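Hi D.,

Good news: the full-assembly prediction came through. Inputs first.
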Amino acid sequence: MLTLSLNNESKTLPTIMSLSAALEHWAMCDELFAAAINGEFVPRSQYASIELNDGDAIDIVKPVGGG
Amino acid sequence: MNNDNRNSTDTPFELYGETLSSRFILGTALYPSPQSMRDSIAAAETSMVTLSLRRQNPEHNEGDSFWETIRESGRKLLPNTAGCKTPKEAINLAEMSREIFQTDWLKLEVIGDDYNLQPCPFGLVEAATELIKRGFKVLPYTTDDLVLGQRLLDVGCEVLMPWGAPIGTGQGLLNRYNLRTLRERLPNTPLIVDAGLGAPSQAAEAMEMGFDGILLNTAVAKANDPVMMARAFSRAISAGREGYRAGLIHKSQTASPSTPTLGQPFWHQS
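Then the structure:
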């Protein structure tokens, strides 16, 4: 069992898996977002190959108004 | 003479080799409703809108309706890195913006102090250097400091966006000396006053000083009538630009009669 944070909230995964598998596991199939792991941007093309580890901090961001 | 004829003689508002149709860049935060934002963008006749990215769970779709509204507006996008306090944060958020919004254009913010949200000069130059290497078209939100502006140009920025006053304060042009110095020392650099304006007259003044454009958000979004205020700023920016192009007279301490004195009746009769 892995414990990670997603947007600063605790999440678990049953085992080490890719970011795309984790997003699927958490039922997050939206396309309109970008991701970072431990503060580093992860291009969408790497979602399937990058593996999540225990303690990783994932940031998922979406468009909002800004000045 | 109609507006189209007047505008056709103006120098194009060109940033990074691209001509924008309006000198007014509008933010998309703080509006009382999506409809108000949509109508304000239309009333402003803005060429480009700023927007941002924030943490949201992709299970939820709060951001989707906002994004749809922005896309439907058809305006050019200028994502920002608001809230970033380090070059690393700004660079990573910039990359996330480029992936989502499919644009290299970026309003770079690296904030150095929470009290006045003042740009950090050191972080700004460091982040701009790296982002330009990565192919971004960086529009840095900066102070009115001349040497900082020069350093940002040295590392490849082609536009500067000095503050009029701290973000959201509505205080207008706080340091006219510094702003005039920027304009005089950097005559060929597009300069956009970004942040701190509260009244259309302040935008007009900046344009009369020779600034090339205005970026603002709060003054429109938090007005009692954002749509009317968007239109007011649009007109003020156009008026200020025309005033600059027309050439302001020099200020004088002594009065000079505008009505001819020759032929004045009763001249010195008493």
